[in-house]
Amino acid sequence: MRTTPGMGLAGLAAASLFFCAVAGADTKLYRWVDKDGHVHYGDQPAPNAKTVNPKVPGSEDAQDAADAAAKAAADKQAADCKSKNDELARYKSATSITETDALGNSKDYTAEQRDQLVARTQKYVNDHCGGTPPGG
What we know:
Blueprint: H1 10-23, E1 29-33, E2 39-42, E3 50-52, H2 62-93, E4 98-100, E5 106-108, H3 111-129
Antiparallel strand pairs: 1-2, 1-3, 4-5
């Protein structure tokens, strides 16, 4: 099997096609083969150059990718809100709150601090999750 010298540059050519396509729809791209058999791409025509219309890989799926990203963001937001709502329910039902840090030090919240914690968490839920959960 014979390979041409330009075959190792396939990735570079693909990247060039991508950037040319992104640069502007009105930009023309040309392809030509030199006397040594090397394939070249450029925005200026050379002798025996042909106009090419590069297809950006996955461009047809751009809307699908955007939809998937939006769904992932919505799913993450829903998971965060569920977690905060669960946390709020625990805070509201607790008669006392004790926090333990990574070193094992414990801190008991006063009734006033507990109320502030409930208020902060409720504000987060209201601002980011559309209010109190059903039954909350």
